[in-house]
Specification:
Length: 144
């Protein structure tokens, strides 16, 4: 699953949890409401629980609950909890037979470029709180 799909689906689930806070919601219920595959959802939400973004409650009436207020939770924090690599990743392994200097120069150019873009993306995501997305959804629904 691409990083953007993983982040988007997880944010949908977090919006659902915020809407039903403080009542724990299990992955089957979240899946039914959001249309996200329940097993993928459990993996993503478990990753967030490991980072203290969510709390898991055991038992028949258990599930996932937001541990942070939507106004305190930003997209970059969610993204970093989900991803083990950057959005712009480049495999720069080279063929030992290919020692062309241009290959190294081009690889270095794109590594620097992708690094700059990654910083810009993460800086922008730090400014977007879950509460902003929830408000945007609410505002958009009112316009329709």
């Amino acid at each position: 699953m691409s990083a953007s799909s993983k982040l988007s689906n997880t944010v949908k689930a977090l919006c659902f949890l915020a809407k039903h806070h403080p009542v724990p919601q299990n992955s089957a219920r979240i899946s039914t409401d959001t249309g996200i595959n329940a097993s993928k959802l459990r993996r993503h939400l478990s990753a967030l629980a490991k980072q203290g973004i969510l709390k898991t409650i055991q038992g028949s009436s258990g599930g996932f609950v937001l541990e942070k207020e939507p106004s305190e939770l930003h997209l970059q924090e969610i993204y970093c909890a989900l991803e083990d690599r950057k959005a712009f990743h480049m495999d720069v392994s080279t063929n030992p037979d290919n020692t062309v200097a241009e290959t190294t120069i081009v690889n270095d150019y794109f590594l620097d470029l992708f690094s700059e873009i990654q910083v810009e993306i993460e800086d922008k995501m730090k400014k977007i709180k879950l509460s902003h997305i929830i408000n945007h959804i609410s505002d958009t629904k009112e316009l329709k």
